[in-house]
Amino acid sequence: MTTPASSSSLPESAATGGTVGGVIARGALAGVVASIVMAAYAMIAAATYQDSGFFTPLYHIASTFIAPDTMMSSMQSAAAGDVFYFSVGPAVLGAVIHMMVGAVYGAIFGLLVSLAKLRGISVVVSGIGWGLVVFAASVWVGLPIAAALFGGGDPIRTMASMVGYPTFLVEHLLYGAALGVLLAVRPSRR
Q1: Confidence bin at 18 (pLDDT 50/70/90)
Q2: Closest CA to 60 of 142, 130, 162
Q3: Backbone phi and psi for residue 115, each to the nearest 5 degrees, phi listed first
Q4: Which tens digit of pLDDT belongs to each residue from 113-171?
Q5: How far is residue 62's CA from residue 55's CA, in Å, rounded to a whole number?
Q6: By the number of CB atoms within 10 A of the CB, which of 25, 89, 135, 176 ranks highest?
Q7: Which pLDDT value is given to residue 11?
């Protein structure tokens, strides 16, 4: 039995069977959720073995656009034993920036997955590889450009070394894995 051909010349999503816009939107949403997974790991790492403060990763990201004072205060508080120093404005700004960047990388990955017609475990494995690509793009291109364009300076330009390359790498691999899992799961059709 054959099915009628689609009248659209747009590629169909391997994940959703939808339009390019739908593929990009699904990738962006998955990117936001994956960025939350990444941030959760970064915050737990900062509060535990890094001893720099639970919310410090958010303040670090926010220092792209604002002075790094809150980040430094959070790190000083952590050194004094208070790992939960909190300032709402910088925390929200850091979270929004992080999720927006995650959405962009997720949208690009979603489109690539669709164009390659990947399914199942190959999406997850590719997502982990994408996390490595995002790590490299961030460390050697994105963060230095953002530091120069927005005045974030050394805290942004050297973010990976400040966080520690192993932790920064794991954060990005977790982002990619979560992104891959989210895009590998096919939504049910009604």
Answers
A1: confident
A2: 162
A3: -65, -35
A4: 999 999 999 999 999 999 999 999 999 999 999 999 999 999 999 999 999 999 999 99
A5: 11
A6: 176
A7: 45
CA distances from 140 to 24, 29, 134, 160, 189 (A): 25, 25, 10, 10, 41
Q: Say how far residue 150 (Cα) sits from the centre of its chain.
A: 19
Give residues with Cβ within 8 angstroms of 136, minimum separation 6. Answer: none
pLDDT of 10 higher than 60: no
Q: What is the pLDDT of residues 61-107, one digit of tens each?
A: 999 999 999 999 999 999 999 999 999 999 999 999 999 999 999 99
CA distances from 80 to 57, 69, 110 (A): 18, 16, 43
Contact yes or no for 181/124 (Cβ under 8 A): yes
Phi-psi region of 153 (alpha: psi -120 to 50; beta: other; left: phi over 0): left
Alpha carbon 177 to its chain centroid, in Å, reads 11
Angle between helices 88-116 and 121-137 (to 10 degrees): 130
In angstroms, the Cα distances linking 153 to 21, 134, 158 are 35, 21, 8
In contact, 59 and 90? CB cutoff 8 Å: yes
What pLDDT sits at residue 4?
43
